[in-house]
Write a structure and sequence with these properties.
Shape: globular
Number of strands: 19
Strand content: 5-15%
Helix content: 40-55%
Number of helices: 29
Largest sheet: 9 strands, parallel
Distance between the termini: 45 Å
Structural class: alpha/beta
Oligomer: single chain
Radius of gyration: 28 Å
Length: about 800
């Protein structure tokens, strides 16, 4: 891994020669001041810089198993719409509705038009379909909203997904989605439609976005904080993601380095950036920035080289070949690129229509003259495809949806590059339920004996038996999950339930809480959830103010909004602030309006494990259990939770479930179990995966087995098992819905007044989304209350 540079940039820059000397001495770029200085390298200094970058690139290609190989993707360009809500001052791609009408162009490409282009590309050997468009045009243009309504689409992104699936199904081209800003939930919903996605970061300069006259002024989707959040969401969603910087639009050298560092740091957290494009500005004659000079070739090469040194040998670095003059391509290769991006034999570069694509044969000749072979890749870069192929349900499986993986692998060689003779063909007919292996008619394994006993009655198994079932794999796992699903069907039926809710931050002022609750209720929410400590200076009254602020709002069915609030740690804190015992405090909360309490922060109910996962800040197991049982005694029901896949053993998982079962037998207060996989990026403390049993989250096999065991062990005690889609992802949730789960939890409304007021911004689904998720595994859906009473849905999809 490349040495980590701090983000803070100092104004006292070294001389270029001094910076080069330090990089040459250690073989890496370790100081951001040197990075900024090296952007100014020219002449002999530039030659030295390019040589350094080339060495780093070559080391990366060697490590990737393809020394001396540069790559490209053969694609067609599908501009689904030229409408956009942004107003970038250098863009010719975006058009107004009036201008499109004058050219006889509809607001969106039709499905027939999309297929015509895609089929033409497939006939010419293309394997990628790049779907690109403006950001959420329906938010600005009534014409866009009207077209979507007329064609039955809730949003432009719904249309993007539909067209991507159509192209994949009918032509076999692999979609790469570039629709601009996406949330985590939107990426999750699109993962079955495309094996890769992308969005250019462009710049981290807030100045270029906030100041009138600058390149991104009046473009809401170009706010750097928004685009950086997209990078984080893509990493957490497990999407092989393409991004990059756009140079020459008014940014300073310091801002260029800041953008490089931001990309490096995001990738260090998630490992998801499959390539970084270093794109040079080209002025367009019809734009506000038409008088700005194009980025100089030497300046571009220096920036490519510095990007290579900052990002290290493991990153794929791209420069678009059509944005450089032919004689400049050698300079870019020397600067450390290893990929040319997408090149089309059929469609122009609609973003830079004045710059035609080079002929692949001519580009290959140029590469050969520089000592490199040119190979075609797929839209998913080889390392991610190999990781998904080899994962066998492990952590690498996240990179490509299991429904797409066979289609992509059929077009790839053993190294993950495109097969020379691969031809795009028809893909499987749409999404399929979670795959299941055929269970053998006769099970002779130890697991088979346990499953036969569980079929006679889940209560017949002891903890050792359930611990053994957690290791089930292959046909045993399929039989286990099928049995869990049969038990689910017998207990609660086929319907998948959900609640319309919103999570809110306890640090918000009471008046703001009321305002946001009113908005949530207007959107159909029946529940508001609050977790976390309120301001200390507010004392115990701060808790009661939160309760009054939220429960003063009438919900969509004429009753107060249900408040689901205060975990055991907060209950204990509130009692301490109030100077009363826990039973008294819980009675006060209930009388004030709290409806139920979250049984979260349970993690694993083992003090040693909890100490590792929280750094010693979790309340002891005895206190957690006492708080929950006291809440139940006070008439406050709760959820039950487990967080699995970190340092705990299977036996500790079973012991946790058995403890919950014991509480339920005594109190009957749990409404549901929420089983949540450990997500390292969301952990409050770093977890050492080198310790015995330590691992960076569970495999899909472990997730499926644990949900199935939970359904069986808790049978007759806790009726509902939630598929925690914000943690599992949409596809993971579908897998456990076929193995014992019956609920999808909350939709987690963002609202528009303050989307960041809750902890899960961007993790929002709609009832229409939930209907699709359930329908793909053959199940109906219904809206419920917090306490699992059915309600008539009042929100549109």
């Amino acid at each position: 891994m490349a040495p980590q540079l701090p983000v803070v940039l100092a104004p006292d820059l070294p001389e270029v020669g001094d910076a080069l000397g330090r990089v040459e001495a250690v073989g890496a770029l370790t100081d951001p001041r040197d990075a900024e200085a090296l952007l100014a390298a020219r002449g002999d200094d530039l030659d030295r810089l390019l040589a350094l970058a080339g060495l780093v690139r070559d080391a990366g290609l060697e490590a990737a198993g393809r020394p001396g190989v540069l790559t490209y993707s053969r694609k067609v360009f599908l501009p689904l719409t030229h409408l956009c809500r942004d107003r970038c001052h250098y863009c010719v791609f975006v058009q107004s509705p009036a201008r499109l009408r004058a050219q006889g162009i509809a607001p969106y490409m039709s499905a027939d038009e999309v297929l015509e282009v895609a089929r033409g590309g497939a006939a010419l050997g293309c394997k990628e379909a790049l779907l690109t468009l403006g950001d959420r045009p329906e938010d600005r243009w009534p014409e866009a909203r009207a077209w979507l309504d007329e064609h039955g689409y809730a949003s432009t992104l719904d249309y993007v997904g539909d067209m991507a699936r159509l192209v994949l199904r009918e032509t076999g081209l692999l979609p790469h989605l570039n629709p601009g800003v996406l949330t985590w939930s939107e990426m999750q919903l699109l993962k079955d439609a495309a094996p890769s996605m992308g969005m250019m970061l462009e710049t981290t300069s807030t100045r270029l976005w906030a100041e009138p006259g600058q390149a991104h002024h009046l473009s809401p989707d170009k706010e750097p904080a928004v685009r950086l959040r997209v990078l984080e969401d893509a990493g957490q969603a497990g999407v092989p993601f393409t991004t990059g910087v756009l140079l020459g639009i008014g940014e300073t050298p310091a801002e260029r380095v800041e953008a490089m560092l931001a990309l490096r740091d995001s990738h260090a957290r998630h490992g998801h950036l499959q390539e970084v494009i270093v794109q040079n500005f080209r002025a367009k004659s019809t734009t506000a920035m038409r008088h700005r000079d194009d980025l100089d070739a030497s300046e571009h090469a220096a920036a490519v080289a510095v990007t290579r040194l900052v990002l290290g040998p493991g990153m794929r670095v791209q420069a678009p070949p059509n944005l450089a003059d032919p004689e400049e391509l050698a300079l870019l290769v020397r600067a450390g690129i290893d990929d040319w991006g997408g090149i089309s034999p059929l469609t122009p570069d609609h973003v830079n229509p004045e710059r035609p694509w080079p002929e692949v044969e001519a580009l290959a000749e140029r590469c050969a003259g520089l000592g490199f072979a040119l190979r075609e890749r797929l839209t998913t870069h080889p390392s991610y495809l190999r990781a998904a192929r080899d994962a066998a349900g492990g952590p690498g499986a996240q990179w490509v949806d299991d429904r797409l993986l066979p289609v992509v692998l059929a077009m790839a060689d053993a190294d993950g590059l495109a097969l020379d003779d691969a031809v795009a063909g028809r893909s499987p007919e749409g999404p399929s339920p979670a795959p299941r292996a055929a269970a053998p008619a006769v099970l002779t394994s130890e697991v088979g004996d346990l499953l036969r006993a569980a079929e006679r009655g889940p209560s017949s198994l002891d903890d050792a038996g359930y611990t053994r079932l957690l290791a089930a794999d292959g046909a045993d796992l399929e039989r286990l999950t099928a049995l869990a699903d049969e038990v689910r069907r017998d207990r609660v039926g086929e319907t998948v339930t959900y609640v319309v809710n919103r999570n809110l931050d306890p640090l918000l002022a009471p008046a703001r809480l009321t305002e946001l609750t009113e908005e949530a209720a207007a959107l159909g929410a029946t529940e508001v959830c609050v977790q976390g400590l309120p301001p200390v200076e507010g004392g115990a009254e701060a808790y009661l103010e939160i309760v009054r602020a939220i429960t003063s709002v009438t919900g969509p069915h004429g009753t107060p909004v249900h408040l689901h609030a205060f975990r055991p740690a907060e209950v204990l804190d509130g009692a301490r602030r109030a100077g009363v015992d826990v039973p008294t405090w819980l009675r006060r909360l209930r009388e004030a309006g709290v409806g139920t309490v979250p049984g979260t922060a349970a993690r694993i109910l083992d003090d040693d494990v909890r100490a590792v996962l929280s750094g010693g800040t979790d309340v002891p197991v005895a206190d957690w259990l006492a708080s929950i049982e006291t809440a139940h005694a006070a008439g406050l029901r709760s959820t039950a939770t487990i967080v699995y896949g970190h340092v705990e053993s299977p036996a500790q998982q079973v012991a946790h479930l058995r403890t919950l079962a014991g509480v339920q037998e005594r109190t009957g207060g749990f409404t549901e179990l929420i089983a949540m996989p450990f997500v390292p990026a969301q952990s409050p403390v770093p977890v050492d995966t080198s310790v015995p049993g330590g691992r960076p989250g569970p495999t899909l096999r472990e997730t499926r087995a644990l949900h199935a065991v939970a359904r069986l062990l808790l049978d007759g005690r806790i009726s509902h098992l939630q598929a925690a889609w914000p943690k599992l992802g949409v596809r993971g949730a579908q897998h456990v819905l076929t193995g014992g789960a019956d609920d999808l939890g909350g939709v987690l409304l963002d609202g528009v007044l303050d989307p960041g007021a809750g902890p899960e911004r961007g993790r929002q689904l709609t009832p229409r989304n939930l209907e699709r998720i359930a329908a793909e595994v053959g199940r109906p859906v219904a809206q419920r209350t917090t306490l699992y009473d059915r309600v008539a849905p009042l929100v549109a999809g």
